[in-house]
Design goal:
The structure is a single chain. This protein is of the alpha/beta class. It is 43% helix and 15% strand. The protein folds into two domains: 20-286, Rossmann fold (3-Layer(aba) Sandwich); 304-405, Up-down Bundle (Four Helix Bundle (Hemerythrin (Met), subunit A)), CATH 1.20.120.640. The longest helix is centred in the N-terminal third of the chain and has 19 residues, at 53-71.
Length: 409
Amino acid sequence: MHAWPASEVPALTGQGRDLRIHDTATGGLVTLDPGPVARIYVCGITPYDATHMGHAATYNAFDLVQRVWLDTKRQVHYVQNVTDVDDPLLERAVRDGIDWVGLAEKETALFREDMTALRMLPPKQYIGAVEAIPGIVPLVERLRDVGAAYELEGDVYFSVESDPNFGQVSHLDAAAMRLLSAERGGDPDRAGKKNPLDPMLWMAAREGEPSWDGGSLGRGRPGWHIECVAIALEYLGMGFDVQGGGSDLVFPHHEMGASHAQALTGEFPMAKAYVHAGMVALDGEKMSKSKGNLVFVSALRRDGVDPAAIRLALLAHHYRDNWEWTDQVLADAVARLGRWRAAVSRPDGPSADALVEELREALTNDLDAPAALAAVDRWAVLQAEQGGTDEGAPGVVSRAVDALLGVAL
């Protein structure tokens, strides 16, 4: 599966700084010090309704992570999956009377278009669950063979008790885990499981549903968590720098994925930091496909909204915050974009050297994008009220805003 084209990232003078970011597993800020190649895995979409503002906010956060690393002159190895076969996708296809493969392809193509428009840097590997199945099957077989998995009526489940570090990502108690498991795709009440929290690794073929050859597992399809584990281990290996996604993935997805990988390799942890973006609401409720309260990037673009304004609307909120999308949020972003573009359109202006360092300081401090926007606002006000004599300043600002915030002025 192919990703989307990369926009050019301007190189800035000076040196970027190492990123300090909130790690869910430890509950505090950690300073990341990757090697020459920083490794990041971000969980992708289930392509049956893309791309809403919740998606966009999440991928914007991890785009900033990449840009901070690039500013330190590192390379970035970014991997993202697409869950192109799963219950919600199949259910939507049945509801709408369309082919599930066609639905997945259409929504994935739309997602690519939106990511391109928003200038999100693409992953090096963009892997669908279906194409990952040949690599998933041997992992499930290994887990079964070492006693970390078991069969139940043809399905294969992972035993959470096989990983002594289970629970070290979310730090939730058993009751909270069971509740979230039931809400987020698990089946804690299924009879015969060793532990109600045990997640499915391989679902035996069901009548009327797609299935694939699973070798000794029989025909079926993979569970949700093992999909990401197989892709991450193949392309990044254990101990990569950042596992990312929305905060709704902390449990069960990231917790279970970590345990799968740790049981497979005997190593801990799967990732050096678990980083999670907040949720975006509309009319007081979290945007979700099940509720249908979605604002789509593609719809805004069709209405003539500049993608740079959409990106500024996302950047106005700290990535870990839960916030609400409103018409005023977008209007503020459109106005800000206009002020910034007017400021950099002049032939000279106030010195921007200090601004570049302010941007770096803000973003390396747990991706504080609102502080970065405020710094550019101050420069734009100074430009409007006083001007300046530095002929290179507008260009410096344009390049810095592009390189570090992904906004083209």
